Amino acid sequence: MSFLQTYKSQYIATLRLAAPVMLSQLGVIAVQLFDNAMVGRLGALPLAAVAFGGTVFFLGFIFVTGISMALTPLVGEQFSQGKQHIAAAYFQNSLLLFTLVSFVSFALQYSITPLMYYMKQPPEVVDMAIPYYQYLVWSVIPYMIFGVFKQFLEGIGNTTVNMVIIITANLINIFFNWLLIYGNWGFPRMEAAGAGLATLISRICMPVFAILFFIFASKFRYYFSYFRKKNFSWIRIRNLLSVGLPISSQMFMEGSAFALTSIMMGWIGTVQIAANQIAMTISNCAFMIIIGLGSATTIRISHSYGRNDAPELKKAANASYHMGLMWNTFTAIMFIVFREQIARIFTDDPEVIRIASQLLIFVAAFQFSDGLQSISVGILRGIQDVKPIATIAFFSYIVINLPTGYLCAFIFNWGAGGLWVGFIFGLSIAAILLMRRLRKQQRKLALEFSQNNSAKQ
């Protein structure tokens, strides 16, 4: 059988799940693009304020949303075995757990607002960033509630509903951006803060849409019929946390590298913050496709894992690597060839354009390693082997990435570009270590599945 015949069905199966996630994530990035482009037209200062406020918010946000991702592999395993009642029990416990987590996260993130003045950013940037940041902090609560529905739907193999909800909410976000940033139709002109309020409004809509969908769609409403008081279980909550905390820790470590790099960029200057925000936004655009592939891979791997199907698991993993590498090749070329044109989308400031164009070359340089490490994480999540990914992330991003970036930027005086050198090293090491772990686990699972299947016969 030819290579294409072997993997054609794998590509189709993965893309069927990944396409809605990709569109959803691109919708999220579209909002960021509109945020940055619309705020950027007000000048470098408002753009820098949105960048800084979003960076501080991102660290806490990515940690709590990462915890909710435990639901997908746990539900996926039960769903593949036909145990819908257990999947629903995890759903029920998640609604309680992650709602409580969202309130704790809100309180902690709101309380650190005064500390933003001690992060060595230009004072005028901090003054403008705080109202934007506080609106984002409020949005954690509705987004986490929506996240439970999102991860549950992904666990049972449905990614289309999430796509519809997210894209609809994003359109609401963009519309309110236009109203509140510029003060159109008699609304107050809030500038950077308006972008934050628009995000809050759209995120309130998301759990409302999800709940209404579950109520009116009989195919999904019956999961509520499994809800029982006796289903609340410390064992299931512990399982959610034992899978979710390592996932969130890995995401937090990786996110910290990007967030702290953005903060260090503020030590150089306001123009550099603005240029860095452009490079980060474009990098995230490309990464959303990889996130879609990673999410689809987690779903497919969790189902193969639940069925003890090692050959299918291996083929699904390989197919995701193939597609990820093809996409990363394309994006690397685009970022190099069209770097100046991309920067001009966001600003007319020639100095911001010059620096952003330079940074996009570094973005191109780590595309392959970024894709490989992300898909590897998606596979490991699917088999619930998540504890090592947190350790690998700490070593790659905290021990290697950040110190390397600092050394190149401030000791070697390479400036803004030096900070991004750290990403090349950190992401490459993460990719190598994660793929090494995965190969080890695949061999182990093949033996375990063979023994389990033999025992059933």
Structural description of this entry:
Helices cover 85% and strands 0% of the residues. With 457 residues, it is an all-alpha fold. The protein has one domain (3-452). The longest helix is centred in the last third of the chain and has 41 residues, at 416-456.
What are the defining features of this structure?
17 helices; 457 residues; mainly alpha; 0% strand
**Helix-strand makeup class:** mainly alpha
End-to-end Cα distance, whole Å, is: 29 Å
> What portion of residues belong to β-strands?
under 5%
Number of E strands: 0
What does the overall shape look like? globular
What is the H/E string? HHHHHHHHHHHHHHHHH
Radius of gyration: 22 Å
Chain-wise SSE layout:
Elements: H1 3-40, H2 44-68, H3 71-80, H4 84-111, H5 123-138, H6 140-155, H7 160-182, H8 192-216, H9 218-221, H10 234-268, H11 270-306, H12 310-337, H13 339-344, H14 350-365, H15 367-382, H16 387-411, H17 416-456
Helix pairs in contact: 1-2, 1-7, 1-11, 1-12, 2-4, 2-5, 2-6, 2-10, 2-11, 3-4, 3-6, 3-11, 4-6, 5-8, 6-8, 7-8, 10-11, 10-16, 10-17, 11-12, 11-14, 11-15, 12-14, 12-15, 14-17, 15-17, 16-17
